[in-house]
Amino acid sequence: DIQMTQSPSSLSASVGDRVTITCRASQSISSYLNWYQQKPGKAPKLLIYAASSLQSGVPSRFSGSGSGTDFTLTISSLQPEDFATYYCQQSYSTPCFGPGTKVDIK
Amino acid sequence: QVQLVQSGAEVKKPGSSVKVSCKASGGTFSSYAISWVRQAPGQGLEWMGGIIPIFGTANYAQKFQGRVTITADESTSTAYMELSSLRSEDTAVYYCARGAGHYYDSSGYPRPYNWFDPWGQGTLVTVSS
Fold first, then answer.
1. Which residues of A touch B59 (CB under 8 A)?
2. Are B124 and B11 in contact (CB under 8 A)?
3. Contact A46 B117 (CB under 8 A)
4. Residue B82 · residue B10 · CB < 8 Å
5. Size of interface A-B (CB pairs under 8 A)
6. CB-CB neighbours of A27 under 10 Å
7. B95 touching A, CB under 8 A?
8. pLDDT above 90: residue A75
9. What per-residue confidence (pLDDT) applies to B101?
10. Which single residue of A31, A71, A85, B107 has CA 20 to 30 Å from A93?
């Protein structure tokens, strides 16, 4: 099975900061990598699919990049509503999520 | 705009079964996969399995094979997830989520595009004696 890791597991940032979260797969998954945002008590929300495609309705400050085993989610200018936990998920084979990265207020 | 509405919270005894429903409205149901993902308290997301209703065949994560059954009723645009032999570790919020359509692999077998949007609101299943 493909394993997913994320780093960091948590980070503290300020409004306006540029934030980067990394996701790594245990083997190549081409571009079959998706990113979700989850706020406490809510269902996850799809942000990015196929590594770099922005889901409809998602602000353009979110972007994704990478292929193979290494991927990045970038928030270009952190907004108050972006404080949440972010998960990567591979869809190359049996779906599997990363452990999550919690973004909180510095 | 597709919406997924799940059934309400459940409290179950160890060893029993639970069946959670997920009703779709506002869009096409049959040709898009429905997956089930669970989240234990304070933990991450775990994919359990999925089904493309028009084809009717479900796929399951190995961890849940033999204990989970996912079905779909096209006539009511509703998907179901039944988990048996419940134990305390199954206490979690269970989500349904729609996949992004399907394609056919080199063998002609339908495969879902497994990125998930939208999601249901979640159903808390508590397993306690």
1. 94
2. no
3. yes
4. no
5. 54
6. 12
7. yes
8. yes
9. 87
10. A85
For residue B120, the chain A residues in CB contact (below 8 A) are 43
Contact criterion met (CB below 8 Å) for B47 and B34: no
**Local confidence pLDDT in tens for the 129 residues of chain B:** 899 999 999 999 999 999 999 999 998 888 999 999 999 999 999 999 999 999 998 999 999 999 999 999 999 999 999 999 999 999 999 999 999 988 899 999 888 899 999 999 999 999 999
CA–CA dist B79, B70 (Å, integer) = 7
A54 to chain B, any CB pair closer than 8 A? The answer is: no
Contact B95 A44 (CB under 8 A): yes
Nearest residue on chain B to A85, alpha-carbon basis:
B44
Average of pLDDT values for A57-78?
98
Please give the Cα distance from B50 to B99 (Å, whole number): 9
pLDDT digits (tens, 9 = 90+) for B32-46: 999 999 999 999 999
Alpha-helical (H) ranges within chain A are none
